[in-house]
Amino acid sequence: MINFDSQKKVLVIGRAGLDIYPEPPGTKIADVTSFSAHLGGSAANTCVALSQHNIQSDLVTCISEDAIGEYVLNKLEHY
3-class DSSP state for residue 3? Predict the structure, then answer.
């Protein structure tokens, strides 16, 4: 296991976005009647995982100025 100095932050660079999944899980796309939305992007998910391990991180990414961008920012602020 890697030990991090709690006084330092990890800088993560990459995508933050919106992932959609068919509901219920396992439904074929042709048969979908609803989707669920979740925070996506490997960089965003890395920051979430770091925060869940009490490791501070900063994310460098681009966020759209629309409802999806607001959703992503709200989810990131939640974590």
Answer: coil
